[in-house]
């Protein structure tokens, strides 16, 4: 590592004054854009800041700023491969030498040892109501895709301003955990657990696991809801065929063609969600067991609330179907008035289509009612646990 040159100090001074220091000091927010422009991992930037902030006041005076900039440039230019554990003597300013010695002595007395992997705290998967509120507020500030999902880039960009003790490897490992299908984006529930994991990694250094609990499988692997009634996701199949007559009757008593129409609608609603009867009942005398039961109830409540909130507005569908019927009837009347229609419109076919669509709306309304009832039961159970 080459020593400081005079031209370097002048360059750092120009940068320092450009940040508009207050009382000859700059805080972390003022230096943050320069730190991110270096493209270094956030964990490395945290180590550099710790070394440079010799007096531990969360601000950098010019001498400390020089240390910070020099370490960053040396890493970017590959002059050094990692952040040194201690500052080299030639980089310690004379006015800070005493503080550096005191810090080194204190470190030796405390005999700090890095915890082994087995000694690291484990991830607590339970999300308290307070944590849920914090995560909801955080995720509301993140740009969402049109399908209601979130990308890794959008979430990680928001977390960089909140969690300073996590690195790119932590983010990638947590993303792989909550996104086992390797999709380009994830739903809100996995995104909440993604933030929950990284927050514990940032705050207490919790070890990111390689797998999640089995009771979270329905949350992590939940597919996006498709409201298209013709979608295969809901196992909704429709076969309709308009059969033309095999022959045309030429007698005077039968001049009309025979039109046959078949409509087969089959709905198989196979849900993978946890039902109330599937939630294990905890031992009322065991706090841990009750907490696990409450966690399952919270997860199911979160899922039901999301599904209820995403139900299609059936009133709007009916209004749109009615407009379609009115349009078809108007088209039919125009064809009658023209007296020479190219292809006569079959009003009965239109009415059959409308009837089928209305029956599907009724099914959706029934499904919505069941979900609301299930939501009420969950709320009652949670209230009984809280009492």
UniProtKB/TrEMBL annotation:
It holds the Pfam family EH. SMART domains: EH (SM00027). It comes from the Eukaryota. Residues 8-98, 131-216 form the EH domain. Belongs to the END3 family. Component of the PAN1 actin cytoskeleton-regulatory complex required for the internalization of endosomes during actin-coupled endocytosis. The complex links the site of endocytosis to the cell membrane-associated actin cytoskeleton. Mediates uptake of external molecules and vacuolar degradation of plasma membrane proteins. Plays a role in the proper organization of the cell membrane-associated actin cytoskeleton and promotes its destabilization. This is Actin cytoskeleton-regulatory complex protein END3. It comes from Tetrapisispora phaffii (strain ATCC 24235 / CBS 4417 / NBRC 1672 / NRRL Y-8282 / UCD 70-5).
